UniProtKB/TrEMBL annotation, chains A, B, C, D:
InterPro entries reported in the protein's UniProt record: Catechol_2-3_dOase (IPR017624), Glyas_Bleomycin-R_OHBP_Dase (IPR029068), Glyas_Fos-R_dOase_dom (IPR004360), GlyoxalaseI/FosfomycinResist (IPR050383), VOC_core (IPR037523), Xdiol_ring_cleave_dOase_1/2 (IPR000486), XylE-like_N (IPR054560)
Enzyme class: oxidoreductase
Cofactor(s) listed in the protein's UniProt record: Fe(2+)
Source domain of life: Bacteria
NCBIfam families: catechol_2_3
Reaction(s) the record says it catalyses: catechol + O2 = (2Z,4E)-2-hydroxy-6-oxohexa-2,4-dienoate + H(+)
Protein name from the UniProt record: Metapyrocatechase
GO molecular function: catechol 2,3-dioxygenase activity; ferrous iron binding
Positions of the VOC domain: 8-123, 150-270
Family affiliation: Belongs to the extradiol ring-cleavage dioxygenase family.
Pfam families the UniProt entry points to: Diox-like_N, Glyoxalase
Amino acid sequence: MAMTGVLRPGHAQLRVLDLEESVQWYTDVMGLVPMGRDQQGRAYFKTRAERDHNSVVLRQADQAGIDFFAFKVLDKATLEDFDRKLQAYGVKTERIPAGELLETGERVRFKIPTGHTIELYAEKTDVGNGIGYQDPDVDVLDGPGIRPIRMDHCLLYGGDIDGNVKLFTEVLGFTLVERVKLEDGKTDLAVWLTCSAKAHDIAMVRHGEDGKLHHVSFQMPSWESVLRAADIMSVNRVSIDIGPTRHGITQGTTIYFFDPSGNRLETFCGGYDHYPDMHPITWSWEHVGRGIFYHDRKLNDAFLSVVT
Amino acid sequence: MAMTGVLRPGHAQLRVLDLEESVQWYTDVMGLVPMGRDQQGRAYFKTRAERDHNSVVLRQADQAGIDFFAFKVLDKATLEDFDRKLQAYGVKTERIPAGELLETGERVRFKIPTGHTIELYAEKTDVGNGIGYQDPDVDVLDGPGIRPIRMDHCLLYGGDIDGNVKLFTEVLGFTLVERVKLEDGKTDLAVWLTCSAKAHDIAMVRHGEDGKLHHVSFQMPSWESVLRAADIMSVNRVSIDIGPTRHGITQGTTIYFFDPSGNRLETFCGGYDHYPDMHPITWSWEHVGRGIFYHDRKLNDAFLSVVT
Amino acid sequence: MAMTGVLRPGHAQLRVLDLEESVQWYTDVMGLVPMGRDQQGRAYFKTRAERDHNSVVLRQADQAGIDFFAFKVLDKATLEDFDRKLQAYGVKTERIPAGELLETGERVRFKIPTGHTIELYAEKTDVGNGIGYQDPDVDVLDGPGIRPIRMDHCLLYGGDIDGNVKLFTEVLGFTLVERVKLEDGKTDLAVWLTCSAKAHDIAMVRHGEDGKLHHVSFQMPSWESVLRAADIMSVNRVSIDIGPTRHGITQGTTIYFFDPSGNRLETFCGGYDHYPDMHPITWSWEHVGRGIFYHDRKLNDAFLSVVT
Amino acid sequence: MAMTGVLRPGHAQLRVLDLEESVQWYTDVMGLVPMGRDQQGRAYFKTRAERDHNSVVLRQADQAGIDFFAFKVLDKATLEDFDRKLQAYGVKTERIPAGELLETGERVRFKIPTGHTIELYAEKTDVGNGIGYQDPDVDVLDGPGIRPIRMDHCLLYGGDIDGNVKLFTEVLGFTLVERVKLEDGKTDLAVWLTCSAKAHDIAMVRHGEDGKLHHVSFQMPSWESVLRAADIMSVNRVSIDIGPTRHGITQGTTIYFFDPSGNRLETFCGGYDHYPDMHPITWSWEHVGRGIFYHDRKLNDAFLSVVT
């Protein structure tokens, strides 16, 4: 098949400091659909347009951050195959039984060189996007909240991003889309990788501390909807890091902002298509400011330092 | 790898009645980049954002229509593999030597059940999109013409679309995204198929005559750029079939219009992402009008009858 | 003062065949704010962004159409002044007492040469647009319905539009913005007039029958919101006359559609600014199709014939 | 008439440090149309959509800033009338003969309490906007540069803005649209005034030094064109102060940036209609950050300090 192996980002489990406040915020401000809670008390969400049961899982904790980020793979055989390949590559994997996350099949969990926990799974209940599979109408915007299209990708911070790139490209079939070099012109400061034809399904920045989250990103349908997202943030006094603006890297438009626990989120739109036959784009240290924030053309202090 | 096999539509060779007039029109009105001519006199074009050497090839002929539509595959080994699989499936293939099309590698050519000629190839020279692979800027709209992002897909008309679907899904790894049923509720009138995560890389409508072209489609970056395309068409007195409007099927926004030879083209934007784990959408005959043209909610006469 | 005399369209009273159905429709589909009913049973509406109490008044009747269209003038002295000028010009005026329409001051009512009833008034209660006059937030789109910015203008059909133009320009201070000539190159088929710096505050088309309504128009904030309006119409199976498309005249983008009683409404965006020192634009009969519908470049049958 | 007196901002004469560099920049980056030079060497520009001969005049000087800002009035009688009223009010006026500025009639020049030079004039040659007054087409974006619709307004800095407000409202017929109060809740820090139905035709901020320019502003047709403007600025390494973002005041979207001489310019879109019967909006000191920059919700250092 043309799309095989790892299909797309599937779910992210985030730690929040006050679950009830966060449930309210992800519902009312982000405009996500609450999909219930499990016995551990975790709260589940999906976007309206997503068909699978959940994509964002919130867990109450003392410290914000990301517990794990998961990718859906084509089918169960693919899942077994990846488990074998990961082990053969020297990565220790763990099986999380079906149902441990609501409406989600068995997961293969493993740690990547930057210390983050990644999961693969093949099954999550298709609950639909509300317009059905027969003679559907358009799902017109008709309520409050930012209402992104999908949970799209994340940007992780940690030490050994070279190890990550090797693992994601050689074992998981990802392709390098863009990279930023440090002042030495050789070492990668940051990389953007895709498992499909998007500009990014995951990205990583080299950082002193392992296991850190820079942001989880949500796709918006248009630059105008990015403006509406910024307006909603201001009406709700949400802390905005930067934006609306454009990235040079991926060329998508963007807002970075923070959930009530300090986890950075992104609403973005656009970004070019990237296929595995395409040449990656490289940014030199001299141009990294313009690469990250195309209009300001300089990094803000927060970009390289504030993570959860 | 995650994206393997057939990657994307690569080139379409169209027949035009007056080559010089057409070259002018595809350059000035469509805003495509002329990429030279070959010894046969064929004229080559790409969009500005496309990196490979060409995506539209024009050939002077007495009758408009499409000579062939081609898909780029991952690499040469994949090309060989598809040739073997096609032959094993009972499809006769032909090898077109590298260079027969400018800057294009060897092609595997075959006829599909609806009588259209399809090609696969693995190599086409990367000439870049003008912004480079090192510290690029944004390619801002700064000149005349519609300037689509990419040659995106085509819609073919012919008799045995069931045979096409079987071939594209079983041999070429495509996935069914949407379908329209005839009044009997069983027979497919039309199908939309993808080889990636787009809403369509090719589509087919059941039709009395084989080998016909309904339209070749070009992707636009925004609904506002679709409006600009319509304005450009009117300034240039281009014949518009319908639009700007929205499709119910794929939910993309669209204009159908005709090149000077009567070949229907489309400029479209949007359409949801479709992955191979997703359920296809089915349209009943009763709702086909809304499916094709979401706002008019009825087919215009031309949609089912005017083809080249 | 710079803006004096007639300020802007203020309210339109429309006849509807089924009041309850219409109230539901203007609330849910148009997204207007219901502002109560009066003792005669008339239903009042305003857009969210309008500050004055009402702009659309619905009256149950056996036949659809418009009872009257009103303009707000600067103040009571201006109202008195216009009454005197109208009478001096030979127009018979009538005083409608304050309160006859909810929250609306005294109105000066008169018939124009095409048989339509026009009103002037100076006072309507400022109920605000919900964001207040102190440190306001943006009123973000957060609910169902088309939600236009304002009731913007109307297009009336009748015989003596020359008489109308003379009255509106010589007595009421309007300016001619655009005109369409009949085949003789002399007679006006249609005229667009402004009392401010908009492309139109009222328009008229020459027609065999007096007192007819072509459409009442509502302003939208963007071309993207025009698309959303069209989607909402289709989700609600509203009868769409034409659009989304662009007018050559005024260059605004537009949808014409019908309320449940058959009154044509318009949602439009854009149109250039026109000041009284500017030259009007003239359209010849040969180009009228492109003038009315810039992309189709021909009139549809309904434009010249279907009125209420 | 409905629109009388002062119609709109007409021209701004800016001082630039290097005329040739500036002519290039206003042509290529701003996308203004060069309209020739006069005997003093001043360079003239208009936007493509403006019909009058010029709206921006550049003069080489040792220090950046604004020489004068002018408003077009309805006609010569109005000009005479304003001259009389200004003198009666105690403002000394000066007559600048027709032709002193290219294609511009006689001007009435005077100083306002904040030390800025303001001009009124009734005549400037209508050179048209290139699409003509007979059967026009749409002027589709087909070249480089930001290409605003019009020179729209300016924001001036100086001491006695109370005196300015009194002069503009009592003599020139302007209306107060929005105001920001200082911490005392009484003194105006800033005011926005209109002579038409726009959210602002001129604005002023209280400042220690008289005669200063904060910015001259150009209207853009859409939020998407504001993004394109920001992209063009970055491609050309133009210094961007802030944006793209939204103002709380007027609710328009905006970018502030600097010409090569350090004069701040703005490209903005939107802003609500304001008529003279409408209540002004007041911002308290506590909310001024959100009022100026709706998304950042704080003033940047430059806003209150950097002027030319």
